[in-house]
Amino acid sequence: MTWLVTGGAGYIGAHVVRAFGDVGLRTVVVDDLSSGHAQFVPDDVPLVRGPIGDTALVRQVLAEHQVTGVVHVAGFKYAGVSVERPLHTYEQNVTGTLSVLEAMAAEGVDAIVFSSSAATYGTPHTDLVTEETPTSPESPYGESKLIGEWLLRDQARAVGLRHTSLRYFNVVGSGYPDVCDTSPHNLFPLVLDALVAGRTPRINGVDYDTPDGTCVRDYIHVADLAVSHVAAARRLEAGEPLEPVYNLGSGDGVSVRQIMTAMADVTGIRFEPETGPRRPGDPARIVASGDLAARDLDWQMRHSLEDMVRSAWDARRAAADADAESHDPTA
């Protein structure tokens, strides 16, 4: 039995691939490396370079590797940028998902775990988001992820596709020193890059109705996230029932200022963050309950905030050392 992980050379996808390997499940990766890194994929995992929008390529991979299920992680994941590039976002996330489902149907693969997003909720009017919270996405990215869920739902009605979608918020940290978050838009790499470069990190908005005035968000460790992807895949493989949607949430958020304090403590770089005005559309608090996923998907917060920051910092330094070595003519 082999599982295809689309986007398996990316930050989240690579952790999913390794989590599968940790329990002895084979995987194959399809990734166009537009934001992923070939070196993130273990040497014993086949990496097929190409876009998921190439249905023929996906079909070929499914057939040649005797794939029994798909973990669909590949996508364009930048909510803010999606507002400026809506057509690109829909092409990558909607047309790409359609291509994967077409290939699966053609090759008789009937199980999929979909990497969705809490962006499907938009700005919820509740302190704790559950799977029953109404969806109201506020960006093309959030909309594209919700459409992806609809595609799975409708394909299930049509051909019996077995599926589940995992919605999550801010994924941080690292489970391996050679895999780090290289996104130019995510908070952790932005702060760590600023500290390495001698710049002062910035907080956008310090006057929210929260305990310290800064936004409160759900931050979850990427390795914990990966474990639940594997749990979902194994239940689908065993024919066990799953809910159509699960939130992978902490149940108790962390503020941006708390993140900054933890960054200073872990890195040993003392700083007072710069402050600026709120960004339009940033709600004061978004935190989700993970109770349903805890029941079905072995979901739990195994890592503290310090663990998240320290693992991200260690991976960031390891990446910098590797980059320096690769450019050292004497190495």
TrEMBL record:
The keyword NAD applies. It is an enzyme of class 5 (isomerase). This is UDP-glucose 4-epimerase. InterPro entries: Epimerase_deHydtase, NAD(P)-bd_dom_sf, UDP_G4E. Belongs to the NAD(P)-dependent epimerase/dehydratase family. Pathway: Carbohydrate metabolism; galactose metabolism. It comes from the Bacteria. Its cofactor is NAD(+). Its EC number is 5.1.3.2. Keywords: Carbohydrate metabolism, Isomerase, NAD. Pfam families: Epimerase. It catalyses: UDP-alpha-D-glucose = UDP-alpha-D-galactose. The keyword NAD applies. Residues 3-249 form the NAD-dependent epimerase/dehydratase domain. One of its GO terms (molecular function) is UDP-glucose 4-epimerase activity. GO terms for biological process: galactose catabolic process via UDP-galactose, Leloir pathway.
